[in-house]
Amino acid sequence: MAQKTKQKVQAKRPVAKPEPKEFSIVDLARELNSFNVDNYWDLGRFLVDKVMPTARKQGMFEDQVLKMISSQPGIKFPFSVLKQCQQYYSYYPDVKKRSLPEVFYFDLATKIDESKRRDQYEKMAVDFKWTISDLRKKIHDDDLARRLDERTKYGFDLRERNVWSFDAPDPRFGKVNFKGRLPGQIIANALFYYTKSNDYVVDPFAGSGTLADIVDTVSHFQDRKYKLYDSNPVDERIARNNILLTGIPEQSNAVDYIFLDPPTEFTQKDSSSDFEVSLDAARADFLLKFKGIIRECSRVLKSGGKVSIIIEPAFAGKEFIDFPNEVTHLFREMGFKGIGKVYLLKRSSESALKMAAGIAEVKGIRALTSDCREMLTFQKS
Ligand SMILES: C[S@@+](CC[C@H](N)C(=O)[O-])C[C@H]1O[C@@H](n2cnc3c(N)ncnc32)[C@H](O)[C@@H]1O
């Protein structure tokens, strides 16, 4: 039987590795600038093989380094391009050996996160001899289908970015002819992002009961508990309460989420009146009302509880009051931190009405009017 001869393991002398060159963002930026603007793969290779290991040794995050490089004066590549190149090379270091043209892989690397899906698209593109437009169309269509699917999954028009517009209010939520009714999709998205199972939700300006309709109708929200108030209740689910006189009639530290949709008269003054003269008065009136309301939110919310408010600026000829900014200051003063900002574009039908009415004037000065509300969300610490 052949016997294995024991080999004597020789203690190797440690080979002295050359110390990495001093990490200099300026040098890296200069070197990067020598790349062609469309040489994405080589650029990615340089970032992945040279820049990132050096940066990691210095204890820096990848994005931090890319941001520092892209902010160097004279650099040809913005952060987004560097990021895409890095991703492209990381996913496809072997791109030259693959069967499709390189642009396919660039698109796949920068549009599809999951490697399994990237492989599926690559296979389809090869099998069906797709052009790059075919691939882009397929990715776009699949994305659309996925988002529609999500909407059905949750039972309402889910939004993923922070500019929301809805052509028509969802007819299931709120009462059709109620003045000031909010498209229910706004409240549904707010509940989706800012509440969780079993949360206790309070709406002190309930209006036509839109929030209650959502919780009662959309199964995703059915485990939320709610309480609605309004100074002029329109159905039995809404309790009568004037928030300016009696605050929010809830126990202290008991509420998880408050949705505030105050009436327009709390902020918007009649532009035909002498608005400029009364500008200070309008601001003072606003501060008085909202200080009280926010104090009440702070009292009834649990620690970590959230509050969203629908608010818009008031334009007054030469000047305007930035109510979203004012309200943000008030919340901060009261110890809240801002956790969300959504722009709510007014419906196209509302804007069309305004256009038909012509350019607004205040005391002979052309005046812009607001086409966009904001939904600001704050969290109690
Ligand atoms: C903009 S609407 C709310 C609309 C509601 N989100 C909806 O979708 O139907 C404002 C509501 O605040 C109510 N309101 C006005 N002043 C109030 C006050 N001082 N206290 C409580 N509610 C008040 C109005 O009656 C009105 O229903």
Give a quick set of tags describing it.
17% strand; 13 helices; 3 domains; disordered N terminus; two-stranded antiparallel ribbon; Rossmann fold; alpha/beta
Task: Characterize the structure shown.
This protein is α/β, with parallel strands linked by helices and 381 residues long. It folds into three domains: 71 residues, no CATH class; 46 residues; 218 residues, Rossmann fold (3-Layer(aba) Sandwich). The chain contains 13 helices and twelve strands. The strands form three sheets. It has an eight-stranded mixed β-sheet. Helix 9 links the parallel strand 2 and strand 3. Helix 1 packs across helix 3 and helix 2 crosses helix 4. The longest helix is centred in the middle third of the chain and has 23 residues. The radius of gyration is 29 Å and the shape is elongated. It starts with 24 loop residues before the first helix and ends with a strand. The N terminus is likely disordered. The site of S-adenosylmethionine has 19 residues, from helix 10.
